[in-house]
Amino acid sequence: MARTDTRTDPTSSRGTDSNPDPITGAPGAHPVGAGVGAAAVGAAAGAAGGAMAGPAGAAAGAVIGGVAGGYAGKGIAESIDPTVEDAYWRDNYARRPYYDQSTSYDEYRPAYQYGWKSRAQYHDRTWDQAESDLQKGWESAKANSRLTWEKAKHATRDAWDRITRSGTHATDRAR
């Protein structure tokens, strides 16, 4: 039985971007979000296990934490719809206080995208905790944008905050 490609099948209820699993074809795969979550939570659990039970506890904690973190990262990544975010920022960027009339949306777009993607990547951190890492990563993330970090960080923070306000981050709600 042939699988339907839900990315392009107009009869699919998932729309045109189902993000299929590269192996099974199942919709809703978020390997980056799952991997980031697995690494972050796995490292933390490994450290805790090591502190309590030595090297064997560290190994067990890393495995258990990696599985739990993978699910957390996948859940956060699934809650962010890049198409919706891009449309929102395209419609609203010119009303933001940092907007510069000589700068098009195409220049701001990588900064917004970096913000919403980074929010999922750093789901266990606040903006203040993650900003220095984000600054270091901007040169790689900016694609063809000519914005410096000093200009891009406002749009990046705006997109980060929008995802945070959406309620997908228990870490932020608890603070």
Features:
disordered N terminus, disordered C terminus, 6 helices, mainly alpha
Q: Number of folding domains?
A: 2
Number of helices: 6
- The ordered string of helix (H) and strand (E) elements is HHHHHH
Cα-to-Cα separation, first versus last residue: 50 Å
Mean pLDDT: 76
What is the rounded Rg? 19 Å
Report the sheet-strand fraction.
under 5%
How many beta-strand segments? 0
Residue ranges: pLDDT <50 for 5 or more in a row? 1-16, 70-74, 169-175
Please describe what this structure looks like.
The protein contains 6 helices and no strands. The radius of gyration is 19 Å and the shape is elongated. It starts with 30 loop residues before the first helix and ends with a helix. Helix 2 packs across helix 3 and helix 4 packs across helix 5. It has 175 residues and is mainly α. The chain has 2 domains: 50 residues, no CATH class; 94 residues. The N terminus and C terminus are likely disordered. The longest helix is centred in the N-terminal third of the chain and has 49 residues.
Walk me through the topology.
Layout: H1 31-79, H2 82-92, H3 105-121, H4 127-141, H5 149-165, H6 170-174
Helix pairs in contact: 2-3, 3-4, 3-5, 4-5
Quick structural overview:
With 175 residues, this protein is mainly alpha-helical. It is built from six helices and no strands. It has two domains: 30-79, no CATH class; 81-174.
